[in-house]
Amino acid sequence: MREGITVEVSAADRARLKAIVADRNSPQKHVWRAAVILATAEGCGTAEIMRRAGVSKPCVWRWQARFMAEGVAGLLRDKTRPPGTPPLPSATVERVVELTHQAPPGEATHWTGRAMAEAVGISLSAVQGIWKAHGLVPHRVRTFKLSRDPAFIAKLRDVVGLYLHPPTHAVVLSVDEKSQIQALERTQTGLPMKQGRCATATHDDQRHGTTTLFAALNLLDGTVIGRCMQRHRHQEFLRFLNTVEAAVPAGKLVHAILDNYGTHKHPKVLAWLERHPRWTFHFVPTSCSWLNAVETFFAKLTRRRLRRGSFHSLVALQAAINRFVEEANEDPRPFVWTAEPEGIIEKVRRGYQAFRSLQ
Question: Is residue 147 part of a domain?
Fold first, then answer.
């Protein structure tokens, strides 16, 4: 220790310093600062304290002086340093936020960081910092569609009621078709993923035709009945309905949830429905495909099998889809719906209010 400097550590301070050293959750900087003071209290010289704490001589002297001036609390606090650059004026920050909520000049569709920096006269990093602090992301956009179905509430309650409270002695099916699935073959083999590089794929491809997947998701057990067909007319839909009819056990009522595609309401389909009295169709509101549960299966199929796939023929594509359906049925999981109808209706009402406020 430097000459003329003495460090007096009370019993309470010593106990507190030992607790800091023993606590496994203490920051390491607090631990070695406490170790410096404890070693000083034991009468160790500066060289020994440096060895124990693993710090330099000026560092030992600095924290000894801090402890003598402020006690244990001084060891747990770092002095603030002035920023390297002065903060932006509040008027400039408010100007950036205000402009971000307005349309950009000219025919630009949205603000970019560089355009905002040029308009306000600040740096790009300053604009990005303001946007981050205020939660503004002008480069992103989310699509939406508010249903204009006059029977929206009634259809919503009907479909969600089947999800939340399925009827007994009945099968609830979510039925839809995923049309225009393209058999795309990459023109060259992509490179595999490795450290520092993601997997690669060519931007162009060869097209070998399209197929349509008709699927019916059993909400109670999570199994899927799927069939690939060349087209998606009412003739193909009727063949698929006959396939589902043969697969559903006899004596079970069938509640089918469908969207408003014209094929589902074709006169021949409605005639088929009259000939099969155990079937009941439940149509979701218009512009509400998200309400049809089988869309979750289609999304999983796209992510895991189609988007990055390469298929040299239409037969190969259909075989891959069929294998995916079989794998899904090997470990099925019941569909679980948690949103109550009232909550959905309230969100739609808020959406209409926000829409009307902009008109």
Answer: no
Task: Say if residue 40 is exposed, middle or buried (CB neighbours under 10 Å; 0-12, 13-18, 19+).
Answer: buried
Shared-domain flag, residues 37 and 170:
no
Q: How confident is the model over 183-217, as pLDDT tens digits?
A: 999 998 888 888 888 989 888 899 999 999 999 99
Per the structure, the complete domain to which residue 166 belongs is given by 155-188+204-352
Q: How far apart, in whole angstroms, are the C-alpha atoms of residue 158 and residue 168?
A: 16
Q: Is residue 199 part of a domain?
A: no
Torsion of CA 11, 12, 17, 22, to 10 degrees: 100
Q: Encoding tokens for residue 150?
A: 């006059």
| DSSP β-bridge partners for residue 181 | 211
The pTM of this model reads: 0.70
Q: Taking CA 53 as the corner, what is the angle to CA 48 and CA 54, rounded to the nearest 5 degrees?
A: 95
Q: For residue 36, tell me if it sits in a domain.
A: yes
CATH of the domain at 297: 3.30.420.10
Q: Exposed, middle or buried by CB within 10 Å (0-12, 13-18, 19+), for 245? A: middle
CA dist., res. 8 & res. 3, Å (int): 15
DSSP 203: S
Q: Are residues 119 and 35 in the same domain?
A: no
Per-residue CA distances from 345 to 149, 160, 199, 348, 359 (Å): 13, 12, 43, 5, 22
Q: How far apart are the first and last CA of the chain?
A: 76
Whole-angstrom distance, CA of residue 161 vs CA of residue 181? 32
The pLDDT tens digits for 91-135 are 999 999 999 999 998 888 999 999 999 999 999 999 999 999 999
Q: Can you tell me the distance from the alpha carbon of 272 to that of 266, in angstroms, rounded to the nearest whole number?
A: 10
Q: How many domains does the chain have?
A: 3
Which among 158, 167, 144 is positioned nearest to 285, based on CA atoms? Answer: 158
